[in-house]
Amino acid sequence: MLVIDGYNFLYAVFGLERSLPIKDYEAARNRLHEYLSRYQNITHRQVIVVYDARGAAQRPNETFAGIHIICAPPRSNADDYIVKCVQNSPRPARLTVVTTDRELGERVKTAGGRVVRCGAFYKEMIDAFERGANPPDDRAHEKPTRPDPEEIDYFLREFGEDS
Questions:
Q1: Cβ pair 9, 99 in contact under 8 A
Q2: Residue 9 included in any domain
Q3: How many CB atoms lie within 10 A of CB 44?
Q4: By residue range, what is the domain housing residue 100?
Q5: How far apart are CA 159 and CA 163, in angstroms?
Q6: The sheet that has 62-64: what strands, in order across it?
Q7: Could you tell me which residue, 152 or 128, shows the higher pLDDT?
Q8: N or C: at which end does the chain have fewer Cβ atoms within 10 angstroms?
């Protein structure tokens, strides 16, 4: 599962400036949500993006095209929310947090999660888009090969044998 530090990603990758009007934040968030949704559809990795309020009214949590958009609760921020997610996870090593915030990254690692920098994830996302548009497997038109004995045993155990 990927957990994106929303505003950190917008500042680091899209060059969003903190002094922009709210409508520009909305446009940038929407663009990010579209990218993440497309990435999720290609990779089948669950994606959560977390924002803090930045002085605005509390926004409801929502889902956009399969990605979960979380707004940190009042008196909290995205960093604290992300760290609590990692700490409360039964398998924190399966969580990858995307951020360039060093302090948040250290807190996530201490809690057992993984960290990927925003620029590296952005490159991975763009690479996934290119692979998704042009799958690397040029053999898609070929007849499939016969399953190996392990696959046959597995299917027989799972689905039974016709006698």
A1: yes
A2: yes
A3: 8
A4: 2-135
A5: 13
A6: 62-64, 67-71, 47-51, 2-5, 96-98, 114-116
A7: 128
A8: C
Q: Name the pTM for this structure.
A: 0.75
Rounded to 10 deg, the angle between the 6-13 and 118-133 helix axes is 80
Q: Which residue has the higher pLDDT, 107 or 129?
A: 107
What confidence tens digit (pLDDT) does each residue in 27-36 have?
A: 888 889 999 9
State the amino acid at position 3 in one-letter form.
Answer: V
User: What was the pLDDT predicted at 75?
Assistant: 75
CA 12/CA 27 separation, integer angstroms: 16
CATH number at residue 41: 3.40.50
Q: Tell whether 26 is covered by a domain.
A: yes
Strand partners, 67: 64
Tell me which residue has tokens 């940038």.
Answer: 28
128 falls within a domain: yes
pLDDT tens, residue by residue, 89-105: 999 999 999 999 999 99
Is 40 a member of any domain? yes
Are 24 and 16 in contact by the 8 Å Cβ rule? The answer is yes
Count of structural domains, the chain: 1
